[in-house]
Design goal:
single chain, about 280 residues, alpha/beta, Arc Repressor Mutant, subunit A, D-Maltodextrin-Binding Protein, domain 2, nine-stranded mixed β-sheet, two-stranded antiparallel ribbon, 7 helices, 11 strands, DNA-binding transcription factor activity, sequence-specific DNA binding, LysR_HTH_N, transcription regulation
């Protein structure tokens, strides 16, 4: 709903309670001490309302909004197809994809579920391994035609590399270049999608998700026997959602479809590498 409606409702709530719940600051709104004391009861009320809604919902389908937070590689190359499958199966469902080059904060309700590249060490969360995925070094065929041949790892030092901005790598699992023996990259971004576009523009070599390669048919995998990375996606959920039938069904459907889509796209890449050899 629009901000003015939210403002009116909050003002009415503050009037009824007789306390100021939010204070306006130059950075936005923040909870007052009175507002902070209401967070836990409000979350309990929301949980009870959702449970009541689920108890009366028809068994045929799942409706409402599902917001999924994910790193931008997963969000760009996997989740659109997964969202399509979910909405086909449940016409009353609206899927929102939040693509961020960082870990989505579930405690701040940035999303209903989040996909991460490593399991968190802290927080009241339910954590589940979704699927493994693979990455390889790749470059555009035009780049490879214009630059020296690459026959082994030492040859990479003569090439321009594309990768992450070092001080913006938000998870150690994303430190891909360290596994190639190359210490620095000349073109860097905190976004997987920006890196991919640079590689597609024949700007250099870079580590690419296998599931993204089918979207760029002119990319060629380099040294697949020497540089082959494996990582995992993890599904993070609010601990309080474990008793929600709706959220459990959605998590199950998301897991099934993400695994299937990752396997489908990676299968295309494996088939291409087999033909090249």
């Amino acid at each position: 709903m629009d901000a003015s409606t939210v403002g009116r409702r909050i003002a009415r709530l503050e009037h009824d309670i007789g306390a100021t719940l939010f204070a306006k600051t130059p950075q936005g709104y923040r909870l007052t001490a009175e507002g902070g004391r209401l967070v836990a009861p409000a979350e309990a009320a929301e949980k009870a309302a959702k449970a009541a809604n689920e108890a009366t919902r028809q068994e045929a389908g799942i409706s409402g909004v599902l917001r999924i937070g994910a790193p931008d590689g997963c969000a760009n190359y996997l989740l659109p197809q997964v969202a399509h499958k979910l909405c086909e199966a449940h016409p009353g469902l609206e899927v929102q994809i939040v693509a961020l080059p960082r870990v989505v904060n579930l405690s701040k309700r940035e999303a209903d579920m989040a996909i991460a590249v490593s399991p968190p060490d802290t927080g009241r969360l339910t954590v589940q391994r979704l699927t493994d995925y693979h990455l390889h070094l790749a470059a555009h065929r035009d780049y490879l035609q214009r630059h020296p041949d690459i026959r082994d790892l030492p040859d990479l030092r003569r090439h321009r590399m594309v990768g992450y901005i070092p001080d913006m790598i938000f998870d150690r699992e994303l430190d891909y270049l360290s596994e190639t023996g190359v210490q620095t990259a000349q073109i860097t971004s905190n976004s997987v999608s920006v890196q991919m576009q640079a590689i597609r523009a024949a700007a250099g070599l870079g580590i690419v998700h296998d599931f993204a390669i089918p979207f760029a048919p002119d990319l060629q995998v380099i040294l697949p026997d020497r540089i082959a990375l494996k990582r995992s996606f993890w599904l993070l959920r609010h601990a309080d959602d474990r008793g929600s039938r709706r959220m459990n069904l959605l998590a199950e459907a998301l897991t099934h479809n993400l695994r299937a889509e990752t396997a489908r796209l990676e299968g295309l890449v494996r088939a291409g590498m087999t033909r090249d050899t």
